[in-house]
Amino acid sequence: MAEEAGHEFKVIGTRPVRHDGVDKVTGRAKYGADYAFPDMLHGKILRSPHAHALIKSIKVDKALALAGVKAVITGEELPELPDKAEPIGEVPTNLRHTALNVLARGKVLYNGHPVAAVAATSPHIAEEALNLIEVEYEVLPPVLNVHQAMAPNAPILHPERRTRESPDKPTNIASHVQFKGGDLEAGFKQADFVIERQFETKMVHQGYIEPHNALAIYNPDGHATVYTSTQSPFEARQLIALIAAMPEGDLKVVPAEIGGGFGGKLMIYMEPLALLLSKKTGHPVKFVMSRSEVLRATGPTSGSTIKVKIGAGKDGKLTAAEVWMAYEAGAFPGSPVGAGAMTAISCYEVPNFLIDGYDVVVNKPRTAAYRAPGATNVAFAVETVLDELAERCGLDPIDFRIRNGVKQGSARAFGPPYKKIGFIETCQALKNSDHYKSKLEGRNRGRGVAFGVWFHAGGQSSAVVNVHNDGTASVVTGSVDIGGSRASMAMIAAEVLGLDPASVRPMVADTDSIGYTAMTGGSRTTHSTGAAVYEAAHDAVRQLKERAARLWQIKPEDVDFTGGKLVSKNNGVPPMTIKELAAKFGRTGGPVSGRAGVSARGGVGTFAGCCVDVEVDPETGKVQILRATVAQDAGKAIHPSYVEGQMQGGTAQGIGWALNEEYVYDEKGNLRNAGFLDYRMPTCLDLPLIETVIVEVPGPDNPLGIRGVGEVSIVPPPAAVANAVYRAVGVRINELPMSPPQIVKALRKN
Fold first, then answer.
1. Phi then psi dihedrals of residue 94, to 5 deg
2. Where are the domains of the chain?
3. What is the pTM of this model?
4. Is 76 exposed, middle or buried (0-12, 13-18, 19+ CB in 10 A)?
């Protein structure tokens, strides 16, 4: 399919000014919290103070009696949805769990779980009303990590749940995934070196700047509009409509500008509540979360326990790998343990392997995606063990990876062999970087490397490319722009049409204005929606050829389109630019709108490697990042500046995950660091300029060779930092975050 992957591009690969830049720097861009309408009410949510408790009763009379309060709803007013997975978008979604996470019914499962929602004439009155709602709880003991949850006599979160492994007894293990191949026992017998380690990681949040928001308007005719900052407007429309018990076609979702998501804004939270309260009151209703609510009650990614055992021969070839993983799902099943199992050893050829992954419910917020969800946890474990094996074998750590690295035709643990991939090229690029070739000197300093893989999604996308009467164009898609996709879409259309990218205006449409388009996530947007734009632009070119043929009274197949000009093959008439032809649209058939819908294939691997230099203060345990470089295979970098930004952003988040970030719960299940003062993310003072090396091995399933670039950069940094810390102070840290107390504890223990 990649017929243009080796083509000489004029627009693709350049760095034009971003199309949405002016609106964002001037403050004209409208984010979710910027929307407001006349007679609007303000919504607030009462949240559980307990991590695990039965709801005995809820009394709302006093709240309703407060002047300014217009409505209160509880979980009993939501429809009873089926307890089964339904195909919502690209991923099966349990409707009952989604509804219970929006508003609890009968039981609360985490500190911050919504219990009731209020709509009032001001946010202050709504807050006051929350204090008047009386809830009687029967507090139950919480389970706060996979060890507690998997214990034989653990308190059970969902007594009705059964699994194949436990058909007669309730369990907190929601599911088990397994991949295996070869002869594991024989593989370990062949090994000269076997390393076995256990690793722990804490729950972490995506840390986006913009809080969640929702504004709903329910009209008397039964139609409704929801404005929200979401990465998945079409999936949101499906879920909101189901929970609000209304026809999906009567609901329009308008995706606002989005102030960061990283996977955390794929789920819905307040949107159905805003809609139901609007229906109940006849007013627009708006919710905006506080930072505390974001951290307490939206989807972080899983904490985990991972056991890794890997064997290798003296020649540095891997012989066997066993990986056991248990991921926290939060209050409802659905951790990314499956993706973790798929990526665990997928950078390497391992002839004998066993991978077991367990999805485990605990009394914490329901987890959500976070940039390559599930892959970072297991890469931390596997890449640390591989670093130790490389040392045992006396090999350079990158050479060790190259010796075992996957390539086209290599088997994957979970499915068919790889198509064309760029793992070896990514390893070589990092090895040949100025950073890796430089000398690192100084006491308590160390350098570490690690690698990671992610499989971008495919899915459905729609696009329209309009050619206007002045010869300019516009591109309309349904993909929310969280990483530069407007620019990418405009550049793809400009490349096909032979236009300057400044002459192409990209737009993100609402759910009524464009065909179905799956989420902005899974590294799919430029890959899949870009393919739709590519096809739509070619459809526009086909129509342009037809118009020119009418003017020249020849057949369309006798018209060429080259460099933005229409050229007659036969009769010698002068070439015509799009602008010249556009002025004649009225007498050649009317407006030109190219359209396309695609269902793109996903799954092709994209790889990244990270090299980090650190300096460790052995007295305080503080780790200073001295230098960091990320190499990543982009397939084809449409706008290199955006690609570099994605690589740098993922690396920065991975470093934060490595050193500082964690959810801290007390023994009762209360989140103790529900704010950015205490949830410690890295700032510019903590990071150097992150150097980037773009590798381009064209992807085989995209006409332009595009691979997803938004996620894989977060996968290797924690392991790279851990390996660097080891080389700085001689101690391996097997727990994230590697905070100063952890470092000091490990040094004293050593």
1. -80, 110
2. 21-29+458-600, 374-456+603-749
3. 0.97
4. exposed
Determine whether 439 is exposed, middle or buried from the number of CB atoms within 10 Å of its CB (0-12, 13-18, 19+). exposed
**Single-letter amino acid code for the residue at 572:** G
**CB-neighbour burial class of residue 657 (10 A; exposed 0-12, middle 13-18, buried 19+):** buried
Structure tokens at 558: 């006798």
Q: Which residue has the tokens 């505390």?
A: 292
Degrees to nearest 5, angle at CA 300 with 89 and 253: 35
Cis (ω within 30 of 0) for the bond into 737? yes
Whether 21-29+458-600 and 374-456+603-749 share one fold: the answer is: yes
Confidence bin at 30 (pLDDT 50/70/90): very high
Beta strand extents in 564-650 (DSSP E only): 565-568, 576-577, 592-600, 605-616, 623-633
User: Band of the pLDDT at 243, cuts 50, 70, 90?
Assistant: very high
pLDDT value of residue 456 = 85
CA distance 52 to 143: 8
Where residue 522 falls (left for φ over 0; alpha for ψ -120 to 50; beta otherwise) is left
- Give percent above pLDDT 70 in the chain: 99
Q: Are 475 and 506 in contact (CB under 8 A)?
A: yes
pLDDT of residue 90: 60
DSSP H or E run through 187: helix 184-190
Binning the chain into helix, strand and coil, the percentages to the nearest 5 are 30, 25, 45
Tokens linked to 440: 């690192």
Phi and psi dihedrals of 331, rounded to 5? -70, -25
Confidence of residue 1 (pLDDT cuts 50, 70, 90): very low
Instruction: Evaluate whether 77 touches 320 at the Cβ level (below 8 Å).
Output: no
Asked whether 59 and 133 are in contact (CB, 8 A), the reply is yes
Encoded tokens for 371: 């940039």
159 token code pair: 């007594």
CATH of 21-29+458-600, picked from 3.30.365.10, 3.40.50.1370, 3.40.190.170, 3.30.70.360, is 3.30.365.10
Residue length, the chain?
A: 750
Question: Average pLDDT of 687-693?
Answer: 97
pLDDT digits (tens, 9 = 90+) for 441-496: 999 999 999 999 999 889 999 999 999 999 999 999 999 999 899 999 999 999 99
Cβ contacts of 8 within 8 Å, gap of 6 or more = none
Query: How far apart are alpha carbons 737 and 659 in whole angstroms?
Result: 5
Regarding beta strands 251-255 and 224-228, do their DSSP bridges make them parallel or antiparallel, or are they unpaired? parallel
Q: Which helix (H) or strand (E) holds 504?
A: strand 504-508
Give CA–CA dist 428/297, Å, rounded: 42
Give the tokens for residue 197.
């380690």
Q: Tell me which H or E stretch contains 125.
A: helix 123-130
Average pLDDT of the segment spanning 40-47: 98
Q: Taking each helix axis from N to C terminus, what angle separates 640-659 and 375-393, rounded to the nearest 10 degrees?
A: 80
> What's the topology of domain 374-456+603-749?
Aldehyde Oxidoreductase; domain 4 (3.30.365)
In one letter, which amino acid is 621? Answer: G
- Read off the pLDDT of residues 526-540 as tens digits, 9 standing for 90 and up: 999 999 999 999 999
Can you give the pLDDT at residue 92? 78
- How many whole angstroms separate alpha carbon 732 and alpha carbon 729? 9
For 111, 264, 373, 659, 663, the CA distances from 672, given in Å and listed in that order, are 11, 21, 24, 18, 8
Confirm if 430 and 693 have CB atoms less than 8 A apart: yes
Contact 403, 296 (CB under 8 A): no
Q: How far apart are CA 126 and CA 274, in angstroms?
A: 13
pLDDT recorded at residue 6: 52
Q: Given a cut of 50, is residue 3 above it in pLDDT?
A: no
Dihedral sign from CA coordinates of 653, 300, 354, 155: positive
